[in-house]
Design brief:
108 residues, alpha+beta, five-stranded antiparallel beta sheet
Amino acid sequence: MRKAHVLYKDAEAGLLIQLEDGSFTFKYHAAWLADTNKPSICLTLPKSKQEHQSKFLFPFFYSMLPEGTNKEVVCRHNRIDADDYFGLLMISAKHDNIGAVTVVKYKD
């Protein structure tokens, strides 16, 4: 199982997890849900108490991945398999993103 912190404007909003079977879950933190001033990170992952589940990387996060030559360079430089979307997301979405959301490797 692999985990990543999902930040919205540098504030931790939730946790993205890739399970052993390759599926994904995203869950907002309780404090984020309780604060009515905090928005959903995107329209397809609305703020709710239930955990969001998907057999594949959520389209919102998939859209943050580099494509084409940029993807090849990032994968080669970081020794990541081109089909390892979660690994690629943790490398490429931790900074220098378009928008307010960043994804960083999970730290206890």
